[in-house]
């Protein structure tokens, strides 16, 4: 073995020991989770703790004539019953939403959706609390309700929000009707109209991204504990954004922010459901302040599905204009957005329709115009980003269905049409017609790799044969090939664009090296299963050469973690991940000075080597990071402050733009409408890959949620505003039996502006997956002239498509 | 979701259970596996004041061959049905059906008797029992009596059982060894009730159908025995025209509700599709 | 309503308690026995997060009254580690194969997988998928859970674990 080989081998061994970026490090979280030692909110048990439960409205729209709590209060074990009358003197019967609206905590004069919170019973245990909810007598006068958002702005529509009836200037400009929330426009209308007037070919379709729900396995819950003597509130809860919750609680309760301790312990999945603030959190806080003992609130599943934050309900009239040889020239979209009874969307404050303007997708579309109208209906409020950056699933669904419809009209292959219109590698950074600057991408390479791997040509040939066989009556199965080439926009975000209630959407990392060379690091984000304790440590390990196993990551305690905006919209890696790298680099810079002092050389004479600084040209002279850490506390250079720690609040210069190419092969039984996914291939490009194992897990999970959304998951209402099927019997969460097998793949196009080139991945598979499944279904029926088939694609709806086409005769 | 309060009783014999039910009156419910009752109690759709847990009654368990019949104790679980050698030998359609009920955990606790007797039209066993011509043995305050499965179901959650009655066992005639059988169930996912399902048992001789019986699940307020449809098959070689006619006759007796599984007309058609597929599979299994 | 006296064995330990008959087994375990590993996910018996082992059956403890467990032997996730405190084959398999993310379904999933492997020590992928169909996971998409159970089966059987080709 020669010297160089030895050196290389030694370096490889030291690198492997670090368990840094790029390796499939096993998760540190799993040690406790596999032993049932996670600590979730409902696991918390405090002395004297009481339990709260809601009385909810059976009506979608009704006037409350009276509330009589006397029978409930008389039940032994009941401690208090709160109604709007109790909260109003405190100014807490309404709370602000993230979207600039207000939302009732407990209904005062009217209820506006079924299961809306009307009273909060507090009792000694959850059994008594539940009993007592049955004993609160509420007298309602039912009112006509609005379920169809297209009726919201009818002249004779009942006015839903009497509380803001006269306030015709909303948070996002003038309102056109008492049931109108906002109109949001972007792009060049005149230029777009001109393109459409002159185009060879246009398509127009109403694409519905139906109402569904993020539905993490753990529901929303909180425990509030107010210490009357200290005047301090501790609030444990299912919070994807604990710091924001603390600020909101301070603003609405009047308690100073430093006397509020918000703690998000382990969280059983979030997917956007746990970003907002809910009546239950507020009522547990009020209950604890009033009673001076801890109050716990835990949502049941029916409450979760029917009250806290639905997703989507976007009705998107989508148009494309193109030349006859398939060059897309313009896009025009109008969205009617059903926000339910309150505008409680969890978007950055300036973005009432989230990042819907990413709807030009992966294509070089020179001209575009987008209008979004938000309206109130008698449904639960929300409109959260369900496993996506704000409204990006909607945007990608619109463009990815639209290009398929265009391909069909042009008689072109849908993959070919996409490739023809892709933004070219040399066009990055690319400024889109609707205002975004895409940081990087190599769409052609990704698409080619995906098409080659799935054998796209062969699949089309097989499909052609099957279609002939179907026409001859030899089979009752039709085959669909779904394609989706998506571009996400994640990592909110630059403060010029993004804030929540005025707080810029930076994120943060604070890293502290202990004298013995082990590390604690804290971030402003909050994992809900993404594995932050594992992956942030990998970034630090690579940056400063301390083994990941010696690095503890802590999140979720607002007393100890630096302020951050939380985890949603795939922002943890792009923003807090960047803060982590920058923070680590600050430490490394100081470490280099210390090493130079220790080795009695000039800083510039040192080079970094995995876990140490060594003197250039004198490889045997070096100081390891561990040695430097000790020195920083023991004998720092003169005039240097001791210790080795750093903090960074990272202001991202731009969003990141992960992308991917997905293919789905589906077989549909036309007699039952049952669709079987034969194959699903997902190629993701999320830039630099921190932990391939964790990335693969994220992709699997996101695809499963996409599959569910596209193929049956929905929150439906009947004409009276009754929410249908709000349980796991009807709400489609696939088991291991229904879930397809997932194939994953990747390309790597690092983000040019992110310190480690990473882009975020948790939501891409959902964003890209939904249109891929829907395209597969649509593609299967296309040769029969079905036209656009709306989601969700559950069996009965697909059977109806066949019925309309006369396939069952 | 929290159930209302109740008093709990756990009798050791059928006589004690019947006596308790008589004494406690209408506010008492039988608790078997609990997987239908407990969800109703948690949503407070049911609030019994007393539960009489019959899981301690040893006599109600077990599977036995008795003469020309298979006898299954009411408290036998779905899991035990799936793993029974006697059933595998004589009535494999029972295990085939059990595997399609709910999910693995629920099959450990869910009982055969609960499934046939609680009157939920979504349950799978009732249509199969009607198809197979089973007899239910019932003990009540007035003594014991037999009720034919085909006469048992009156409406949704409404059966020939009267308050105080306990289903003790089910007797099923052993079909000829060369019979063909199948249970076809369309459902949205594991754990779901049927959108529609069909149980079929036939015998064939020289390529002709010599007997046929058909049960349909969850396409009416009660499980259905499609006797007219079955009669159209007997004597035919199960050619397309005969099967079409039988399917049409079966569809004609369905009256499914529109629910999250689909609109009524879809579920009717699915009853037809399931019956057709069950028949095909039964035919492929029938020897003779 | 009259309380009932129950006696049962939980993770090898004899337990006597007085419970209200309507107390669900899940609440009894979590709140009276401080065994918070099993979780409540759906309240209606569909998700399996509350699964525990009861007399050689996997049982949904939110669909079972504590009184129904009188006399039973119960194992929860807290009783699943090896006697020396190290992770059992299934626990290790879930970690090695990345069979969990948020961890909320994991205790129920592991308890169910445990019973499955007791009854079928060498399950196929299809048998595993059907065997865990009473447990919902919102994070993993099941692919890695299947691998975790295969890993554990191999480890228990002393055969080499071979990851199925993609």
From TrEMBL, chain A:
Biased composition (Basic and acidic residues): 1-17
EC number of the protein: 1.2.5.3
Cited SMART domains: Ald_Xan_dh_C
Domain Aldehyde oxidase/xanthine dehydrogenase a/b hammerhead: from-to ranges: 35-144
GO MF entries: anaerobic carbon-monoxide dehydrogenase activity; carbon-monoxide oxygenase activity; copper ion binding; iron ion binding; molybdenum ion binding
Pfam families: Ald_Xan_dh_C, MoCoBD_1, MoCoBD_2
Region spans: Disordered: 1-20
Cofactor(s) demanded: Cu(+); Mo-molybdopterin cytosine dinucleotide
Reaction(s) the record says it catalyses: CO + a quinone + H2O = a quinol + CO2
Keyword entries, A-Z: Copper, Metal-binding, Molybdenum, Oxidoreductase
Domain of life: Bacteria
Coiled coil stretches, renumbered: none
Gene3D superfamilies: Aldehyde oxidase/xanthine dehydrogenase, a/b hammerhead, Aldehyde oxidase/xanthine dehydrogenase, molybdopterin binding domain
Its job: Catalyzes the oxidation of carbon monoxide to carbon dioxide.
Oligomer status and interactors: Dimer of heterotrimers. Each heterotrimer consists of a large, a medium and a small subunit.
Protein name as catalogued: Carbon monoxide dehydrogenase large chain
TrEMBL record, chain B:
Cross-referenced Gene3D superfamilies: 3.30.465.10, CO dehydrogenase flavoprotein, C-terminal domain, Uridine Diphospho-n-acetylenolpyruvylglucosamine Reductase, domain 2
Signal peptide interval: none
One Gene Ontology molecular-function label: oxidoreductase activity
Keyword Transmembrane helix appears in the UniProt entry: no
Domain of life: Bacteria
Pfam families reported for this sequence: CO_deh_flav_C (PF03450), FAD_binding_5 (PF00941)
SMART domains, per database record: CO_deh_flav_C (SM01092)
Keywords: FAD, Flavoprotein, Oxidoreductase
TM ranges: none
PROSITE patterns to which the protein is assigned, alphabetical: FAD_PCMH
Chain ranges of the FAD-binding PCMH-type domain: 1-177
PANTHER family: XANTHINE DEHYDROGENASE SUBUNIT C-RELATED
Protein name: Carbon monoxide dehydrogenase medium subunit
Source organism of this protein record: Hoeflea halophila
Lineage, broadest ranks: Bacteria, Pseudomonadati, Pseudomonadota, Alphaproteobacteria, Hyphomicrobiales
UniProtKB/TrEMBL annotation, chain C:
InterPro entries associated with the record: 2Fe-2S-bd, 2Fe-2S-bd_dom_sf, 2Fe-2S_ferredoxin-like_sf, 2Fe-2S_ferredoxin-type, 2Fe2S_fd_BS, Beta-grasp_dom_sf, Diverse_Oxidoreductases
PROSITE patterns, alphabetized: 2FE2S_FER_1 (PS00197), 2FE2S_FER_2 (PS51085)
Segments forming domain 2Fe-2S ferredoxin-type: 4-80
Keywords: 2Fe-2S, Iron, Iron-sulfur, Metal-binding, Oxidoreductase
Source organism superkingdom: Bacteria
SUPFAM superfamilies: 2Fe-2S ferredoxin-like, CO dehydrogenase ISP C-domain like
Pfam family, one: Fer2
Gene3D superfamilies on file: 3.10.20.30, [2Fe-2S]-binding domain
Protein name as catalogued: Carbon monoxide dehydrogenase small subunit
Signal peptide: none
GO MF entry, a single one: 2 iron, 2 sulfur cluster binding
């Amino acid at each position: 073995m020669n010297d160089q080989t030895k050196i290389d081998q030694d370096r490889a061994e030291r690198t492997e020991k670090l368990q840094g970026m790029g390796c499939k490090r096993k998760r540190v979280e799993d040690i406790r989770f596999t032993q049932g030692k996670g600590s979730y909110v409902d696991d918390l048990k405090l002395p004297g703790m009481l339990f709260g439960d809601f009385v909810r409205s059976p009506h979608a729209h009704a006037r409350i004539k009276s509330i009589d709590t006397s029978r409930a209060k008389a039940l032994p074990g009941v401690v208090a019953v709160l109604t709007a009358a109790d909260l109003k003197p405190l100014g807490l019967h309404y709370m602000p939403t993230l979207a600039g609206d207000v939302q009732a905590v407990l209904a005062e004069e009217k209820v506006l959706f079924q299961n809306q919170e009307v009273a909060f019973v507090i009792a000694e245990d959850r059994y008594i609390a539940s009993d007592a909810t049955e004993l609160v007598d509420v007298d309602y006068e039912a009112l006509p309700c609005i379920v169809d958002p297209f009726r919201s702005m009818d002249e004779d529509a009942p006015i839903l929000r009497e509380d803001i009836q006269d306030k015709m200037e909303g948070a996002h400009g003038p309102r056109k009707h008492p049931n109108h929330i906002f109109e949001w426009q972007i792009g060049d209308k005149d230029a777009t109209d001109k393109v459409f007037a002159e185009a060879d070919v246009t398509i127009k379709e109403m694409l519905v991204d139906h109402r569904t729900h993020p539905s993490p396995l753990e529901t929303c819950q909180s425990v509030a504990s107010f210490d009357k003597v200290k005047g301090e509130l501790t609030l444990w809860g299912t919070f994807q954004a604990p710091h924001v919750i603390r600020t909101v609680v301070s603003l609405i309760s009047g308690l100073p922010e430093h006397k509020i301790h918000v703690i998000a312990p382990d969280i059983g999945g979030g997917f956007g459901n746990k970003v907002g603030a809910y009546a239950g959190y507020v009522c547990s806080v009020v209950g604890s302040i009033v009673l001076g003992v801890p109050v716990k609130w835990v949502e049941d599943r029916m409450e979760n599905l029917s009250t806290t934050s639905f997703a989507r309900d976007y009705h998107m009239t989508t148009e494309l204009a193109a030349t006859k040889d398939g060059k897309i020239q313009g896009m025009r979209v109008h969205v009617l957005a059903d926000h339910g009874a309150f505008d409680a969307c969890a978007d950055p404050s300036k973005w009432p329709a989230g990042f819907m303007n990413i709807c030009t997708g992966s294509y070089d579309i020179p001209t575009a115009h987008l209008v979004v109208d938000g309206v109130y209906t008698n449904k639960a409020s929300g409109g959260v980003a369900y496993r996506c950056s704000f409204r990006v699933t909607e945007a990608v669904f619109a463009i990815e269905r639209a290009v398929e419809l265009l391909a069909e009209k042009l008689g072109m292959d849908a993959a070919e049409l996409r490739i023809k219109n892709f933004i070219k590698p040399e066009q990055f950074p690319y400024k889109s017609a609707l205002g975004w600057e895409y940081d990087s991408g190599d769409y052609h390479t990704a698409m080619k790799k995906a098409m080659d791997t799935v054998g796209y040509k062969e699949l089309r040939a097989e499909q052609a044969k099957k279609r002939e066989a179907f026409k001859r009556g030899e089979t009752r199965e039709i085959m669909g090939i779904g394609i989706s080439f998506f571009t996400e926009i994640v990592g909110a975000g630059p403060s010029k664009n993004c804030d929540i209630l005025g707080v810029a959407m930076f994120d943060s990392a604070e890293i502290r090296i202990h004298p013995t060379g082990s590390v604690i690091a804290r971030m402003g984000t909050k994992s809900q299963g993404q594995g932050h304790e594992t992956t942030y440590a990998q970034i630090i390990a690579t940056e400063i050469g301390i083994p990941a196993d010696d690095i503890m990551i802590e999140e979720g305690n607002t007393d100890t973690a630096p302020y951050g905006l939380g985890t949603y919209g795939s922002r943890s890696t792009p923003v807090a991940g960047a803060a982590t790298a920058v923070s680590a680099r600050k430490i490394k810079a100081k470490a280099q000075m210390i090493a130079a002092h220790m080795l009695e050389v000039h800083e510039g004479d040192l080079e970094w080597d995995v876990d140490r600084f060594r003197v250039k040209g004198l490889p045997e002279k070096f100081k390891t990071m561990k040695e430097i850490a000790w020195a920083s506390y023991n004998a720092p250079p003169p005039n240097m402050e001791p210790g080795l720690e750093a903090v960074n609040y990272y202001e991202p210069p731009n969003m990141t733009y992960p992308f991917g190419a997905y293919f789905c092969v589906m077989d549909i039984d036309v007699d039952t409408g049952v669709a079987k996914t034969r194959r699903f291939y997902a190629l993701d490009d999320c830039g630099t890959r921190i932990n391939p194992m964790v990335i693969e897990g994220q992709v699997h999970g996101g695809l499963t949620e996409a599959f569910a959304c596209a193929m049956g998951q929905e929150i439906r209402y009947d004409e009276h505003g009754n929410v249908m099927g709000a349980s796991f019997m009807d709400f489609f969460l696939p088991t291991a039996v229904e879930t397809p097998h997932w194939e994953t793949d990747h390309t790597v196009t690092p983000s040019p502006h992110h310190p480690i080139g990473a882009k975020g991945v948790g939501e891409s598979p959902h964003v890209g997956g939904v249109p891929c499944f829907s395209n597969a279904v649509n593609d299967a029926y296309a040769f029969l002239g079905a036209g656009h088939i709306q989601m969700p694609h559950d069996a009965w709806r697909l059977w109806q498509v066949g019925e309309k086409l006369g396939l069952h005769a | 979701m929290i159930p209302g309060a109740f008093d709990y009783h756990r009798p050791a014999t059928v006589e004690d259970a019947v006596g308790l039910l008589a004494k406690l009156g209408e506010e008492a419910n039988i608790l078997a596996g609990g997987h239908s009752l407990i969800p109703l109690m948690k949503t407070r759709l049911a609030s019994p004041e007393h539960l009489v847990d019959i899981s301690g009654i040893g006599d109600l368990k077990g599977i036995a061959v008795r003469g020309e019949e298979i006898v299954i104790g009411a408290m036998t679980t779905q899991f035990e049905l799936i793993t029974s050698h006697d059933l595998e030998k004589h009535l494999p359609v029972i295990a085939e059906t059990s595997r399609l009920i709910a999910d693995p955990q629920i099959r450990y606790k869910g009982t055969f008797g609960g499934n046939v007797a609680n009157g939920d039209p979504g349950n799978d066993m009732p249509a199969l029992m009607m198809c197979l011509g089973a007899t239910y043995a019932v003990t009540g305050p007035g003594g014991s009596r037999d009720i034919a499965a085909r006469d048992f179901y009156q409406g949704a959650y409404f059966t020939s059982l009267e308050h105080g009655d306990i289903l003790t066992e089910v007797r099923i005639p052993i079909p000829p060894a060369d019979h063909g059988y199948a249970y076809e169930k369309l459902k949205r996912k594991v754990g779901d009730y049927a959108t529609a399902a069909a149980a079929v048992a036939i015998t064939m001789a020289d390529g002709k159908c010599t007997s046929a019986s058909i049960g349909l699940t969850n396409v009416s307020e009660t499980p259905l025995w499609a006797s007219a449809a079955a009669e159209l098959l007997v004597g035919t070689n199960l050619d397309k025209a005969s099967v079409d006619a039988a399917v049409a006759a079966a569809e004609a007796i369905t009256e499914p509700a529109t629910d999250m599984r689909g609109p009524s007309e879809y579920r009717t058609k699915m009853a037809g599709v399931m019956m057709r597929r069950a028949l095909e599979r039964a035919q492929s299994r029938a020897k003779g | 309503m009259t309380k009932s006296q129950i006696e049962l064995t939980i993770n090898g330990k004899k337990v006597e308690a007085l419970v209200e008959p309507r107390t669900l087994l899940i609440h009894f375990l979590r709140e009276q026995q401080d065994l918070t590993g099993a979780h409540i996910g759906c309240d209606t018996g569909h998700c399996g997060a509350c699964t525990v082992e009861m007399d050689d059956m996997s049982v949904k403890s939110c669909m079972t009254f504590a009184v129904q467990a009188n006399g039973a032997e119960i194992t929860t996730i807290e009783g699943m580690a090896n006697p020396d405190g190290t992770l059992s084959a299934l626990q290790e398999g879930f970690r090695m194969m990345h069979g969990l993310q948020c961890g909320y379904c994991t205790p129920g999933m592991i308890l169910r997988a445990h019973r499955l492997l007791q009854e079928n020590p060498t399950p196929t992928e299809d048998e595993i998928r059907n065997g865990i169909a009473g447990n919902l996971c919102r994070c993993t998409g099941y692919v890695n859970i299947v691998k975790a159970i295969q890993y554990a089966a191999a480890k228990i059987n002393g055969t080499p674990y071979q990851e199925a080709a993609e």
